[in-house]
Structures are given as structure tokens and as C-alpha cells.
DNA sequence: ATTCGTAACGCCTAACCTGA
DNA sequence: TCAGGTTAGGCGTTACGAAT
């Protein structure tokens, strides 16, 4: 296989980055576009992923150098360094997406009456309720996190008391997604979200000028030395639809990848197709040649490479 | 640290083979 | 134990807001 030269790769990456939104494009997207642009299978390009990542960083560095005078207008992309190492990356400020907690929700009738709005950002609900509790001195004096509801709060939340932690859960039962509601409410939600996006955008722009310190990652490492550690089900054990050529060798039309490899090796042994002079080499008969693109021999390492073309997802 | 929902993204895992 | 090759999908993290 012939991998593209660094120069070819650099030109292609720069073309892609120049013609796409730098705030939205990811490394995965660049890899996919490269695969298409260079007419190379993605799997082949994976080898050059570190180089691609480096070239993206180079591009961004050059790009930022050009626009260094515009501190609030710096470009950014998720395509460069990985999230955990992207400490020095500027944050996107030109566009924002709403998270689940920021999305607009439709309130139950009592809650809407209490807050005075039918559609509101989910995150604003505790804010309203907390402000009300403070104003009316509803905090439990022995535990200020606990709120003792007055009649208005009881009517809105259908509970006698709550803590700040349980409030979110209580609220969950009192709101609906806009898409579950009629067109009028959906329209209200749309306008509400536009407003939230605008506010978020302004906040992001302020943060871009004065970025907060990065948070440390909390992900624990897997204890690989422990053989009893919990294992996840493997994608390799999922049955796939086999091509006619592979079915002819395996004897079954649907098998998992691992089973296919097993069957092929069974077939090789049964038909004594290992090269007696070179244990790593397989001498292909007609059935195997149909799988291995007409090759008369294939190395034991090379078997897996050809399988993907003969295996498709079962719908 | 705790609650809620959700999207995006990256990490990691799995089986199989032989020979050095 | 590593080499080579395959990839779907589970899971963890992060982000967002609020108060204590």
C-alpha cells in the first residue's frame, strides 16, 4: 500500500481546513474528508492520524499568527489536539450549542403559573425557585439547603419540602420537551432558545478574553493486571453478513469476525494449505483466492486485512 | 459533591492466528 | 509478549446552571 506523502497530506488538510468551519470541524471529520479527497480507505489513513493532528495544529498556529491582532476573533477547532491535551487551545466564540440543561422546556400549568412563564431554560427553574425561597425566608434554619414550601411552592411543585439537590429531580417531573407539545409552544421554545444562545455567546466572548483555568480529568485507569476486572461486550462478537466467497469457506453466511478467523484457520488446516517451507505463509486454493483478491499466497498476518470487504452489517 | 438531561468526543476493549 | 490487521459500541468525561 502507498501512503500519501507528507506534502500531499499537508496540501489536502490545508484545503479542507480553509473550506470548512474551524469551530465545528473535528479530527474525525478531517480524517473522513481526507479519505474522500485522497481516495484512500479511512483505515489506511489511520496510520497517519498523528501526522494529520500535527498538521492541523500547524495550520491553526499559522492562522492565529495571521489574526493575532484580533484577540476576540481567534479561530478554534476540535480537530487539533485531543480534548484532554487542548489546554492552550482558544475556545470557540462564534457559535454555541445548547446543552440538555440549557434547552428550553415547557412547564406544567402550576409551575408555569408560579414562575410566570410557560417556556423557560431548564437551568433557570432552580434559580427562580431559590430566589423565591430566599425572598420569603423559606430555608430551614437548621439546614439552609432544605426549603420548606409555602402554599404557593406546594401548589407549584406538589411537595412539602425539598433540598437543592432534590429540586432538580422534582422539576424533571414537572416539565416537558417542546417537541412533545403543540406548535405554539414549540415556537415559544425556539424563541426562548435563541435568546439563551445569544446570552451564552456573549458570555463565551467574555471568557475568550479571560479564560478560566482548565479542569483536571477524573477518569480512573483500568487495572489491566486484574484478570477479573469487568469486561465489556465486544463488537467482534457481533454476527456479520458474509460474502459468498467467505460463506464458501466458513460454511455459514452469518458469523462474527472472530468466528470467521477461526473458520478460516480450520479450513487452512483441514486442507493443509500452510506453506511447509514457511509457516507464516498460506498457499491459497481457489476458495481462498476469491477472498484474498486473487493472491496465490497470503501471510498469516494478512488474513484479517481482507475480511472487511467480505463482511457487512446485518440490518 | 450533590441533582437533573444530553450531546460530543475520546478512550478502551474485545478475538484470532504463528513465530520470534 | 509482541507483531499485524480489523471496528462497533460501551463508557467516562465534560459542558451547562443553580446553592450550600
Overall description:
The protein has 315 residues and is an alpha+beta fold. It has 3 domains: 6-85; 104-209, SWIB/MDM2 domain (MDM2), CATH 1.10.245.10; 236-312, Orthogonal Bundle (MDM2). It is built from 13 helices and 11 strands. The strands form 4 sheets. Strands 2-1-6 form a 3-stranded antiparallel beta sheet. A 3-stranded antiparallel beta sheet has the order 3-4-5. Strand 3 (139-140) and strand 4 (143-148) form a beta hairpin. It is elongated and about 90 Å long. The two termini are 31 Å apart. Residues 66-95 and 211-233 have low confidence and may be disordered. It binds a DNA duplex (20 and 20 nucleotides) through helix 6, strand 4, helix 8, helix 11 and helix 13. Residues 3-61 form the DEK-C domain. Residues 100-177, 235-313 form the DM2 domain. This is Upstream activation factor subunit spp27.
Sequence-ordered SSE layout with sheet pairings:
Elements: H1 6-18, H2 27-37, H3 42-45, H4 49-66, E1 104-107, H5 109-115, E2 119-121, H6 124-135, E3 139-140, E4 143-148, H7 151-157, E5 161-163, H8 164-172, E6 175-176, H9 183-209, E7 239-242, H10 244-250, E8 254-256, H11 257-270, E9 281-283, H12 286-291, E10 297-299, H13 303-307, E11 311-312
Helix pairs in contact: 1-2, 1-4, 5-7
The chain binds a DNA duplex (20 and 20 nucleotides) through helix 6, strand 4, helix 8, helix 11 and helix 13.
Amino acid at each position: 500500500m502507498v501512503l500519501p506523502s507528507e506534502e500531499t497530506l499537508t496540501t489536502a488538510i490545508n484545503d479542507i481546513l480553509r473550506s470548512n468551519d474551524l469551530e465545528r470541524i473535528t479530527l474525525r471529520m478531517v480524517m473522513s474528508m481526507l479519505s474522500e479527497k485522497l481516495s484512500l480507505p479511512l483505515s489506511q489513513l489511520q496510520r497517519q492520524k498523528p501526522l494529520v493532528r500535527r498538521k492541523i495544529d500547524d495550520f491553526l498556529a499559522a492562522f492565529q499568527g495571521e489574526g493575532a491582532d484580533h484577540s476576540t476573533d481567534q479561530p478554534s477547532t476540535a480537530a487539533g489536539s485531543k480534548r484532554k491535551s487542548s489546554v492552550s487551545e482558544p475556545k470557540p466564540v462564534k457559535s454555541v450549542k445548547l446543552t440538555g440543561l440549557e434547552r428550553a422546556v415547557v412547564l406544567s400549568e402550576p409551575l408555569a403559573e408560579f414562575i410566570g412563564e410557560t417556556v423557560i431554560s431548564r437551568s433557570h427553574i432552580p434559580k427562580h425557585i431559590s430566589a423565591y425561597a430566599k425572598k420569603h425566608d423559606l430555608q430551614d434554619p437548621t439546614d439552609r439547603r432544605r426549603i420548606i414550601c409555602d402554599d404557593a411552592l406546594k401548589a407549584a411543585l406538589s411537595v412539602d419540602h425539598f433540598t437543592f439537590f432534590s429540586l432538580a429531580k422534582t422539576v424533571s417531573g414537572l416539565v416537558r420537551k417542546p417537541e412533545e407539545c403543540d406548535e405554539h409552544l414549540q415556537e415559544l421554545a425556539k424563541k426562548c432558545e435563541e435568546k439563551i444562545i445569544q446570552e451564552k455567546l456573549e458570555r463565551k466572548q467574555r471568557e475568550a478574553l479571560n479564560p478560566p483555568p482548565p479542569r483536571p480529568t477524573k477518569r480512573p485507569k483500568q487495572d489491566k493486571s486484574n484478570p477479573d476486572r469487568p469486561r465489556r461486550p465486544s463488537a467482534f462478537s457481533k454476527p456479520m453478513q458474509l460474502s459468498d466467497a467467505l460463506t464458501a469457506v466458513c460454511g455459514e453466511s452469518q458469523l462474527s469476525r472472530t468466528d470467521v478467523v477461526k473458520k478460516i484457520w480450520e479450513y487452512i488446516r483441514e486442507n493443509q494449505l500452510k506453506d511447509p517451507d514457511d509457516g507464516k505463509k498460506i498457499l491459497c486454493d481457489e476458495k481462498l483466492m476469491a477472498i484474498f483478491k486473487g493472491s496465490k499466497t497470503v501471510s498469516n498476518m494478512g488474513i484479517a486485512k481482507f475480511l472487511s470487504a467480505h463482511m457487512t452489517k446485518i440490518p
